[in-house]
Design goal:
The chain has 343 residues and is an alpha+beta fold. The chain has helices at 10-24, 73-92, 113-129, 181-190, 198-209, 215-221, 235-243, 261-270, 293-305, and strands at residues 33-35, 43-44, 50-60, 97-107, 133-141, 147-157, 172-176, 227-230, 249-253, 287-291, 311-318, 324-328, 331-335. The chain has a seven-stranded mixed beta sheet, sandwiched between helices. A hairpin with a 7-residue loop joins strand 1 (33-35) and strand 2 (43-44). It starts with 9 loop residues before the first helix and ends in an 8-residue tail after the last strand.
């Protein structure tokens, strides 16, 4: 009888061999990295005339992503990519270019090596697409579950970082992509019995498992916007974060809201209102921003002349105290800023 060999576990190889194996999964480093993985700390050379932008995010298995044993090897890779794009999206929202990362892993020793390699390969591939140097990090054992914390360093020309603050009454509010696609994709993954078409099912699943931080799009938008953030907790909650510093409100126009046909098909099947998923907790990693009327006209002219990111102009900033209103012809009603909260 053939003997099925047991999978190699983390406890079978030890810390230093694991580090060596994971290091081989990373893209080659740039000349900016003078000292990388293997020494006590990293040495990295910044670009003259730039400021450093730093962000850090933790993704815990089972809380911020499905349990690793519940997904295929392909989806494990996607979850690694997703963890990286959480951070990439933060620096994109500030119009910064990602440069280096530190990756901290807390791993149960009984996990198969192939599981962690697949997840880490996804992180490395996503960072490699943006030429990010992995300069170091830490590995520790835990009773479970697995968690990863990525600290990302980025650069922006001095005093050119775009902040959440700065919106003014009369500004247009815009966003990229289709907010809510991630929440709809997670719902479909949790309910595989839902009879959607293969095309719609794949679009929604990719919305959750394969989000794309809008790093290049943010560079295109940087000179036009007054304020910008990313959609990591939900469209309405992140919209509120964009308005709170100035104590402003916004009127959203029903006929201007992006609504992907795949989202619409799922909402119709579930007998939900249109834009149900857009107005729910959804980590889409799209951009959300405010632009003056003059700069919007500039953008629209530029948009006709060259290839530009898809932007949906969804509403106008008002001086109404933190009021988010959904407007449809002559009627309007208030919306509550719902979204993901850790506590």
């Amino acid at each position: 009888m053939p003997h099925n060999k047991s999978p190699l576990l983390l406890q079978d190889i030890g810390e230093y061999e694991l580090i060596d194996r994971l290091k081989r999964l990373l893209p080659s480093s740039s000349p900016r990295l003078r000292v990388g993985i293997g020494d006590d700390a990293a040495v990295w050379t910044p670009t003259p005339g730039h400021q450093l932008v730093l962000t850090s995010d933790t993704a815990e298995e089972g809380r911020h992503s499905p349990p690793f044993h519940d997904v295929s090897p392909e989806r494990l890779h996607d979850l690694g990519r997703r963890a990286a794009h959480m951070n990439l999206s933060d620096v994109a929202a500030m119009a910064a270019i990602p440069r280096f990362a530190l990756i901290n892993l807390s791993l149960p020793k009984t996990y198969p090596l192939a599981t962690i390699e697949g997840f880490y390969q996804g992180i490395g591939d996503a960072l490699g697409e943006h030429k990010v140097d992995v300069v170091g990090g830490n590995i520790t054992s835990t009773a479970g579950p697995c968690s990863v914390t990525i600290t990302l360093g980025a650069e922006v020309p001095s005093d050119k970082a775009v902040l959440r603050t700065g919106s003014q009454p009369g500004d247009w509010v815009g966003c990229t992509g289709f907010p809510g696609l991630s929440a709809a994709g997670l719902y479909v993954w949790l309910h595989p019995e839902i009879p959607l078409s293969t095309v719609h099912n794949n679009i929604l699943m990719d919305g959750y498992f394969r989000p794309q931080a809008r790093v290049q799009e943010a560079q295109s938008l940087a000179t036009y916007v007054r304020a910008m953030t990313d959609i990591s907790d939900g469209f309405l909650l992140d919209l509120a974060n964009l308005l709170v510093p100035e104590d402003l409100g916004v009127d959203l126009y029903v006929d201007k809201l992006p609504h992907h046909p795949a989202q619409a098909a799922l909402e119709q099947h579930l007998q939900k209102q249109p834009h149900h998923f857009m107005f729910s907790a959804s980590d889409d990693y799209e951009l959300l921003f405010s632009v003056s009327s003059e700069q919007r006209e500039r953008w629209l002219k530029q948009e006709k002349m060259e290839e530009a990111p898809l932007v949906h102009w969804v509403g106008r900033v008002t001086d109404q105290h933190r009021a988010i209103r959904l407007c449809d012809q002559n009627t309007s009603h208030d919306l509550s800023p719902e979204g993901w909260q850790h506590f």
